[in-house]
Description:
three-stranded mixed β-sheet, single chain, mainly alpha, 8% strand
Amino acid sequence: MVFGYLTFRKARKSKLSQRNAAITSLSSELPSTLDFDTTHHEIVAAPVSEILRRVHEARTWTSRQIITAFAKQALIAHAETNCLTEVFASQAISHAAELDLEMGRRDEPVGPLHGVPVSLKDTFNVFGVDSTLGYSGWVGRPAGKDSVIVSLLKKAGAVPYVKTNIPQTLLSFESWNPVG
């Protein structure tokens, strides 16, 4: 019993440390709140249809701008609510930049969701990222491949950037668990 508790504590501490390091790293890459300009505010307030119009048709926003704005907003929300379990926005920003380059080469969007930021619940596998469902025993076991829905989203041009908290085993209405 004691060993199980100690194992849980060690896994939880490791996961929180990993998440906090990702947040710190991302925070240093993003503009400060004072630099969070009008465009960023417009982006995070825009409905998906407007994001798609601005990326696909008007081409006034880039995928990189969109993911950067949403990543900053996610960090602000996390500071208030502890909602993030996995933060891979740095990789998402790089992927968004690649989408922008590909759109420049093709002269058309990569897919119907090109540039749309997607936060996922901790139930969906993202390659290289843990999906713990709140179980400490699943900490440190990154997914070997994307789940089907994540693969489909990426193929459509969407950009997953964070995973959000869920109740342990999805058996509660509260989005809290001992790991996250």
